[in-house]
Design goal:
By secondary structure, the chain is of the alpha/beta class. It has eight helices and ten strands.
């Protein structure tokens, strides 16, 4: 079984389309949230995901930006993110907002070998908000896994690819499709081949038309910073 992991699309349709060409042959696609926020195409991204979830094995959880847009909960966001959330609320359709509201905060998946996964955007201690950064010590990840019964924990939120192996269990972040923050502007995703050993999680980067996404951000009247950061991968 091939499992594709994606996260943090952030209304970036150009990035989503090129990543989808890479992952669509997987047996199942698992998404750790934040379909919307920051970018210029929230309706198009949500409709793409809605359509594909009806066609195939595709699980997705709600991220903090999904939550903020769906329910109007934008406190704690920086000024750029808050402005984008409010713009999203103005332009998104009722149907797409309702879809975001219905996304679960947690989702379970079991692969063909019997290995179990918990999908969550942030962490099991704070599902929408906690950042599990790659540089945290093993002791912190052990503490996080104490809240998880499944074999593996799949997260997003940091926009940084990560694989941590802790006592035979994995914490995996595929990085961000639509707004990487690890210094590499290219869209990020990950693949798991269940016939390979646990340490063999394959992280991939793919170029997309970042200039087009940036142009649309500026033309929409969103903060120019949200366009400029895409070129730097931060």
């Amino acid at each position: 079984m091939f499992i594709a992991l994606i996260s943090d699309i952030h209304s970036n349709l150009e990035a989503l389309k090129v990543v989808w060409r890479e992952v669509k042959r997987a047996d199942v696609i698992l998404c750790m949230g934040d379909l919307v926020g920051y970018g210029p195409n929230p309706n198009e991204v949500v409709e793409f995901v809605r359509r594909e979830m009806e066609r195939r094995d595709f699980l997705c959880v709600r991220g903090n930006h999904d939550n903020a847009v769906a329910f109007g909960l934008d406190w704690g966001f920086n000024p750029y993110a808050r402005e984008a959330v409010r713009w999203h609320q103005r332009v998104m359709s009722v149907e797409n907002l309702e879809f975001l509201r219905r996304l679960p905060v947690r989702q379970l998946f079991t692969d063909d070998t019997g290995r179990s996964y918990l999908l969550i955007h942030g962490s099991p201690r704070a599902p929408l908000d906690e950042y599990l950064f790659p540089w945290l010590p093993d002791s912190e990840f052990r503490s996080v896994l104490g809240y998880v019964r499944q074999d593996d924990l799949l997260v997003g939120h940091t926009h940084m690819p990560m694989l941590r192996l802790i006592d035979g269990r994995r914490i995996i972040n595929p990085g961000s499709v639509g707004q990487p923050r690890d210094g590499d502007w290219r869209a990020s995703y990950a693949l798991i081949d269940t016939e390979e050993p646990p340490e063999n999680v394959h992280f991939h980067r793919v170029e997309y038309d970042v200039e087009e996404t940036a142009r649309k951000i500026v033309e929409a009247g969103l903060p120019r910073f949200l366009a400029e950061r895409l070129f730097e991968g931060y």
